[in-house]
Amino acid sequence: MEGEEDNSGMAYFILSNLIFSSSLQWNYRARLKANYYDIESTDEERLKEENRPPNVDKDDWEWLVEYFGSDEFKGKSTRNTENRSYQDAGHTAGTKSFAQKVEDMFERDKVMPTMLKLYEETHSKNDKTPVTKVAKETM
Description:
By secondary structure, this protein is mainly α. 61% of the residues lie in helices and 0% in strands.
């Protein structure tokens, strides 16, 4: 309509920042769990001052310890472990979400990548060879 601004650029900016922020939050939590949450310890041990990660507030660490020990989290973890066992074409995107990878490719190439280009980029080694036989057949 005449006189109305096109906000699609702003919407894209906001959405991409939300996706990026969300992935950072979950990556950070995953690193904290991997590096500071000892599965052999008790919550009492985990909550001791010397076992809390640096730069993590006491209340935040208490929440994370409770969350990592919750039935909800353990259920998700078990379900995700099982789901990963069904994957036969491992990817090379690491902890980066595919949505973030699409955004990175768009910024680099100035064109929205096709599903095939995204697949090739996330299922190839540095020398551009597919990571598995299944990935090669899919390409």
